[in-house]
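Figure 2 data, in text form.
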Amino acid sequence: MTERGGFRRAFLAGSAGVVASAALAASAAAQSKLTINDPVVLREVEAAFAGYDRALETNDVAALNGYFFDSPTTVRYGIRENLYGYSEIQAFRASVTAIGAPLRRERTVIVTYGNDFATVSTLTRPPQPGKVGRTTQTWVRFPQGWRIVAAHVSTIDEPPKP
């Protein structure tokens, strides 16, 4: 290795560190300005999630489909299905019958990050004793409104109380 080549590598490595540090600092500054749970945005997502629940309880397939982002990148993992893309979610919804009773949601946590991104995490009490359902959704605001871009639904045995 020549002295010049070694110097160049050291210079480039040092420059990469400076660039990475600058990027990290910019990211930290942006995060410090990010508003979490802005009351207006939070109410919007709460309303969207409540509408989703109403559609789920009545099996309003058109409304349920409308809550999901129409994209091949949208994902929904369900209790017995893994659905990739809006078309698979749409086909699944068309095959499901109504649950027939209001959902018993517990410990619903909605968090908004900035004006256009939110998560919803909630527990559900299914009819089977000793079981608990879990739902997690990622919502993004698009020009057409709030849409789910990823969802996970599962049922587990009731865990012991902490």
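Caption note: The beta strands are 75-77, 82-84, 105-113, 117-124, 131-142, 145-157.
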